[in-house]
Amino acid sequence: MAESRSCIVIGGGAIGIEMAKILSELKIETTIIHSSDFILNRYLDKEIALDMQNALVENGVKIITNTLITSIDEENLKDSNRKISHVRTANGQHFEADGIIYATGFRPNSFLVANQVALGDRGAIIVDDYMQTSHPDVYAVGDCATTKLTNVKEPTYVPHASDAIRQGDVAGANLAGNTVQLKYSQGTYKLNFDRDISLCMSGLTHEKAKQEGFDSDVVTIRDQYVNGNAFFEAYLVYEKVTHKILGIQCKGSSFEVGAQAEIISLAIQNNLTVEDLQYSDFYFKHGFNNPRSFTQILADAIRQKEKAVK
């Protein structure tokens, strides 16, 4: 890698984006090739995803979307020990790079039990709230098992470290008898874009909420320090009539957005509304332009949006 001048990252999900950021910081010419309309499409709605995409482009990362790869081959350079990788796409594009990183997602490794326990989404092993499979003596956790997500009808394959750890703890506790049930997941993630800026998300995107049958809407807020560059932006997905919280996507200084995502994750788990959180006892945000809690600011934003519609 120290001798590499260029690299192609195949896949614009969480791992692909983090790898591209690292490579770019190492001054390696980096190109992301992604099959969907925008990067991080499984995690973010298009509006906030494009903000992150533009930030990567401004830092020198080339991003190619809506593109499928049809072939990859290597060429040995004459009079050199180096190899060049050639990537060709369905729409006739040709890319060259010193190396390729595959970040196209996961598939569950369930082949060992494929004909012995029930399989679900993408071939992942179906488990219940105790992590027990369809065979009473077999438990499954982590990247081979399904995950139950709050507000999502069907168990889903969601390979994620924090879910795997929780599942392992629950399965271990239940080996002597099912006594501990796993709380549903909200799919809470955190991506660090640089030393000061992070991206966090929890719950459903607006598009996913609509797919699950919710009459949903979104509001966006921003607050920042009076002195300094620290800030946060929050993009809240909620059910229109009830104001039930469905999801959040937020970016900004690492501590602020991390805390916000965890609060909203707990709120989604407990089917809370924006009003349930509005006057909760959160600390006073000294130094911010608006020092009230972000939940109060979000509630105000929803009221203003509904008033404008009327």
Automatic annotation (TrEMBL):
The UniProt record lists the FAD/NAD(P)-binding domain at: 5-168
Q: Which UniProt keywords apply?
A: FAD, Flavoprotein, Oxidoreductase, Redox-active center
InterPro entries, A to Z: FAD-bd_OxRdtase, FAD/NAD-bd_sf, FAD/NAD-binding_dom, FAD/NAD-linked_Rdtase_dimer_sf
User: Which co-factors does it depend on?
Assistant: FAD
What SUPFAM superfamilies is this protein classified in?
Answer: FAD/NAD(P)-binding domain (SSF51905), FAD/NAD-linked reductases, dimerisation (C-terminal) domain (SSF55424)
- Asked whether the keyword tRNA processing is assigned, the reply is no
| Keyword Iron-sulfur tagged | no
**What is the protein's given name?**
FAD-dependent oxidoreductase
Source organism of the structure? Leuconostoc falkenbergense
